[in-house]
User: What shape does this take?
Amino acid sequence: MKPESGKQWDPIISAFCGALTGMTLAIVLEARDMCAGRFDDVDPFVPIATDLAMFAAGGAVLFAAAAELRNRSRKSSRANRRW
Assistant: This one.
């Protein structure tokens, strides 16, 4: 059996990584739209800024929730273990 590490994932660092991942995805999608010429508005700042904010917030929440769920499941699995 593999030795189990007692390290927990930090939800704050996970949220930061999720925000970076979300912003990267938003930038890639906006670059695709820009290359395809899909901007109908005169000023594309508002849609781009909104997408960046929403993707960053969504990624942060998703990654922080995953870290918290992982930490909880590891705590409960250690508590239920019988030796």
